[in-house]
Specification:
Structural class: alpha+beta
CATH class of the largest domain: Alpha Beta
Protein name: IS1182 family transposase
Number of domains: 3
CATH topology of the largest domain: Nucleotidyltransferase, domain 5
Strand content: 15-25%
Organism: Paenibacillus campinasensis
Number of strands: 13
Pfam families: DDE_Tnp_1_6, DUF772
Shape: elongated
Order of helices and strands: HHHHHHHHEEHEEEEHEHEEEEEHHEHHH
């Protein structure tokens, strides 16, 4: 016998929203183990104390934002509709079954006006990390960093070409000092002061999102992107730092400054870091060595000229400061250039009659030149770290931590594409995505500990 349930839709029932939300629901765990009381204190300076209409509770406002990132709801309008019909969302926000859901324009207005040009999203991210530290879920001893591309909300065919200044490297003053000291130690005259030359390059600038950068990388899609530079702690894979740059900024540029920020902000006593090959630069290797941090960086494969000996065929003699070629001839020091590279050259008299000349150099004067950076010792120290037992273990952990963090952000939290345009809005999306990832991991872990106990 067929029965219809249509008449039950008109029936009245006395129910409690508390009973309708499952006890093992994720939002119950988040609400139990994450303390949101700090939000009131953070946003109080942004509100007027004695003027204007009563504002929506800031905790409710940010919980709405968190819901959008928890469940990958890209539209604020859609978020409002989801909250209207989802009992768990209502319970999380403290709304009853008949309470009016805050309008989606409330979130938009606060983002565009009240929270614009503030550090509120960074502050909230930091507070969640501090809570994780209190729960002993962040050790701050071993950190893993990498970057991932996020597609900008821009058409890659709509752009203009502009001449812009080259990125100034913040280590240039230190490098210039090292070059002068190295030349003096080798009895060379100081280099003449270089006239200030403004170096420019031509880049593509998007018409729809000028803050994004046109990215061209091997094995990566081409177009306008942002880069999310992220650091995770090895202990429980919690995210400890998020930094967003245009897609045409090299991974290594912001690394050391972001590392120092974590050490200062959270008091981390970093002992080791694991990085991808994009970070294998002499300034980073030197910076890690100076900070006393065990650096493990993936090997970067360089492709030598076809048919010629690779550089590793030439052995460096540190005591005598010279290179030895495969046939045991010496390459003596000549000079140190502005870029910080020492030049070691062979004797053309030996090379001219060498049976391996064609495999060594194609120069017209039969002279082989090998270069070595003044900070090359730091890079070799990092290479030796990678080949050690501890280094191999740390690098294996890299793909299990930072790569997993990026994958969860893109697959579960809608971080494959930028929701909005502009560096500030993308930074908000990156910070809030990382914040909900941390909250989810903390809540699940703490709930397991409690049930296990």
């Amino acid at each position: 016998m067929l029965r219809s349930n249509r008449e039950k839709q008109q029936a009245y029932e006395f129910v409690s929203i508390e009973e309708l939300v499952p006890h093992d629901h994720l939002l119950r765990k988040v609400d139990k183990y994450i303390d949101f009381s700090f939000i009131d204190e953070k946003v109080r300076p942004l509100y007027c104390a004695d003027n204007g209409r009563p504002a929506i509770d800031p905790v409710v406002l940010f919980k709405m934002i968190f819901l959008g990132y928890f469940y990958g709801i890209r539209s604020e309008r859609q978020l409002e509709r989801e909250i209207q019909t989802n009992l768990a969302y209502r319970w999380f926000l403290g709304l009853g079954l008949t309470d009016k859901v805050p309008d989606h324009t409330t979130i938009s207005w606060n983002r565009r006006t009240r929270f614009k040009d503030t550090t509120i999203f960074q502050d909230i991210f930091d507070e969640i990390v501090l809570q994780a530290i209190e729960h002993r879920m962040v050790g701050g001893r071993v950190l893993v960093s990498d970057s991932t591309h996020v597609k900008a909300n821009a058409n890659k065919h709509q752009y203009t070409k502009q001449q812009v200044l080259q990125n100034t490297r913040d280590y240039m003053d230190e490098l210039n000092g090292a070059v002068e000291a190295d030349r003096k130690a080798h009895g060379k005259k100081p280099l003449k002061p270089r006239e200030d030359v403004v170096e420019k390059k031509e880049i593509k600038v998007s018409k729809t999102d000028p803050d994004s950068g046109y990215m061209i990388r091997d094995g990566k899609p081409e177009g306008f992107f942002y880069l999310d530079h992220r650091t995770v702690d090895l202990k429980y894979n919690l995210i400890t730092d998020v930094h967003v740059t245009p897609g045409n900024v090299h991974d290594s540029v912001p690394y050391l400054s972001r590392l120092d920020r974590q050490r200062e902000r959270f008091g981390f006593e970093v002992e080791a870091v694991a990085l991808d090959s994009g970070y294998l630069t002499t300034p980073i290797c030197k910076g890690l060595q100076e900070r006393g941090i065990f650096g493990v960086i993936a090997h970067r494969r360089f492709h030598p000229t076809q048919g010629l000996f690779p550089k590793w065929k030439f052995t460096y003699d540190a005591e005598r400061n010279r290179y030895i070629c495969p046939l045991q001839h010496e390459l003596l020091y000549r000079t140190t250039n502005r870029e910080g590279y020492r030049q070691y050259a062979s004797d053309p008299k030996h090379c001219k009659t060498c049976p391996m000349l064609e495999q060594c150099t194609r120069s017209r004067n039969h002279r082989k030149v090998v270069t070595r950076h003044v900070w090359e010792d730091s890079k070799e120290w990092v290479r030796n770290n990678r080949l050690s037992r501890s280094g191999k273990y740390l690098y294996r952990k890299r793909k299990e931590t930072i790569e997993r963090s990026f994958a969860d952000a893109k697959e579960l939290h809608g971080f494959r594409y930028c929701r909005l345009r502009g560096l500030q809005n993308v930074r908000e999306q990156a910070l809030m995505t990382a914040t909900v990832q941390n909250m989810k991991k903390m809540a699940i872990h703490l709930d397991r500990l409690e049930n296990r106990g």
